[in-house]
């Protein structure tokens, strides 16, 4: 039985209820989970997929309801102001989101959510990382992603999707996959009091459906616009993104109250400035905000993406620790971030604009032991040309390479700015094997 048509807000309340039932009374559960950087794209992919799929699940679905999980603890929401900026368009609040805090504690998760009772659809990644990956990898039942294939996809996904395509935003692929179901006549809404009490208005009313569609469409629209710089990035924008934006914008406008005042450029600007507004965050939070981690060849690699320059990060570090030079304070902060996560290899990728508006990237790589040093040096020689790596210099013209037997640290200007973490991460992982 499909879930009757309801608002995203009502749906999330139902999904939380289903998750609780799964934990408390060993019910089956299907998760839709984004990657652990939990950026806007990952969050909206899981919401869109779970919401739309639950309205028309395949006949042989493991469970009719799909539970969207944002792959961070709820405390992580405080460093994602862009989520809050967007939630109001979707008529949801942070408390509606299902996060890792809604799953059982990792020490007992295996007994509370027995692997055989779960199924996992991965969106915006194609290999389940970390401790969830160790327990539930075998239960991955479908993938929609726009990263390099890590070779861990299930062989047969049956009626669940198995899609990896290079696009600006994974939300574009989710939209493409779900739009047929979205446009199909919806299951008649019921006036069941039980569902009403969960916060969803179930009026079988065309106007209500248009409003709900518009709210969900705006969620998806935001991610695609952010990931493609409002469709202006020539490196990132693909035809999938353009089509999905057209489709979602049309859905947004079908709600008469929205069609009068909606301005896509303004909408993009608002979400984008919220995302860039990280000045009030501490440096550790900035490094953790868009962070991913992998294990390869017995070593652990971490990569932080940051929307400000190295110069900004150094000043931030200095401001937080007045007794050290800018550089020392910065490197101390990176070291403590890496130690806390037991990293062998740590990279920081920055994006910023030069004074004359040119888009720039910097790449810092720090190897903390001999094995990691040799991987980092191999990466440097293998990837130098492709990424356009030039030595980075600070305002005083000083480079900051540190080379000792057991450690190596280097900062580059990455001239070939089309390459994001989607390319840099596979190159680093390759060098580690
Ligand atoms: Mn993505």
From TrEMBL:
<dbReference type="InterPro" id="IPR038763">
    <property type="entry name" value="DHH_sf"/>
</dbReference>
<protein>
    <submittedName>
        <fullName>Exopolyphosphatase-like protein</fullName>
    </submittedName>
</protein>
<keyword id="KW-0464">Manganese</keyword>
<dbReference type="Pfam" id="PF02833">
    <property type="entry name" value="DHHA2"/>
</dbReference>
<dbReference type="InterPro" id="IPR004097">
    <property type="entry name" value="DHHA2"/>
</dbReference>
<dbReference type="InterPro" id="IPR001667">
    <property type="entry name" value="DDH_dom"/>
</dbReference>
<dbReference type="GO" id="GO:0046872">
    <property type="term" value="F:metal ion binding"/>
</dbReference>
<dbReference type="Pfam" id="PF01368">
    <property type="entry name" value="DHH"/>
</dbReference>
<dbReference type="InterPro" id="IPR038222">
    <property type="entry name" value="DHHA2_dom_sf"/>
</dbReference>
<feature type="domain" description="DHHA2">
    <location>
        <begin position="268"/>
        <end position="432"/>
    </location>
</feature>
<keyword id="KW-0479">Metal-binding</keyword>
<dbReference type="GO" id="GO:0005737">
    <property type="term" value="C:cytoplasm"/>
</dbReference>
<keyword id="KW-0378">Hydrolase</keyword>
<dbReference type="GO" id="GO:0004309">
    <property type="term" value="F:exopolyphosphatase activity"/>
</dbReference>
């Amino acid at each position: 039985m499909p879930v009757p048509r309801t608002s995203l807000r009502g749906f999330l309340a139902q999904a939380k209820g289903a998750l609780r039932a799964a934990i408390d009374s060993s019910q089956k559960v299907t998760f839709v989970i984004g990657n652990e950087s939990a950026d806007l794209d990952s969050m909206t992919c899981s919401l869109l997929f779970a919401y739309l799929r639950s309205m028309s699940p395949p006949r042989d679905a493991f469970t009719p309801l799909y539970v969207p999980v944002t792959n961070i603890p709820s405390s992580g929401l405080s460093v994602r102001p862009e989520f809050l900026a967007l939630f109001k368009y979707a008529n949801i609040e942070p408390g509606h989101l299902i996060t890792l805090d809604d799953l059982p504690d990792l020490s007992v998760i295996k007994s509370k959510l027995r692997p055989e009772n779960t199924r996992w659809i991965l969106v915006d990644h194609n290999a389940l990382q970390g401790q969830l990956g160790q327990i539930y990898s075998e239960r991955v039942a479908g993938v929609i992603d726009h990263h390099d294939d890590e070779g861990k996809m299930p062989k047969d996904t049956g009626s669940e999707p198995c899609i990896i395509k290079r696009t600006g935003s994974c939300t574009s692929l989710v939209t493409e996959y779900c739009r047929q179901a979205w446009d199909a006549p919806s299951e008649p809404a019921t006036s069941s009091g039980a569902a009403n009490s969960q916060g969803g208005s179930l009026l079988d009313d065309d106007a209500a459906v248009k409003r709900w569609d518009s709210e969900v469409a705006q969620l998806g629209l935001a991610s695609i616009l952010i990931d493609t710089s409002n469709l202006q990035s020539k490196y990132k924008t693909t035809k999938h993104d353009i089509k999905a934006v057209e489709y979602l914008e049309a859905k947004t406008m079908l709600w008469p109250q929205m069609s009068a005042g909606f301005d896509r450029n303004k909408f993009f600007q608002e979400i984008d400035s919220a995302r860039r507004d990280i000045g009030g965050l501490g440096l550790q939070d900035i490094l953790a905000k868009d962070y991913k981690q992998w294990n390869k060849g017995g070593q652990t690699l971490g990569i932080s993406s940051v929307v400000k320059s190295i110069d900004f990060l150094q000043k931030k570090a200095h401001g937080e620790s007045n007794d050290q030079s800018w550089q020392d304070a910065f490197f101390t902060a990176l070291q403590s971030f890496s130690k806390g996560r037991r990293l062998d290899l740590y990279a920081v990728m920055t994006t910023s604009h030069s004074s004359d508006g040119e888009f720039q990237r910097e790449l810092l790589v720090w190897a903390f032991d001999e094995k990691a040093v040799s991987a980092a040096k191999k990466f440097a020689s293998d990837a130098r040309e492709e990424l356009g790596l030039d030595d980075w210099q600070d305002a005083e013209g000083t480079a900051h390479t540190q080379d000792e037997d057991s450690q190596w640290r280097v900062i580059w200007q990455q001239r070939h700015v089309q390459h994001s973490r989607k390319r840099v991460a596979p190159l680093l992982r390759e060098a580690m094997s």
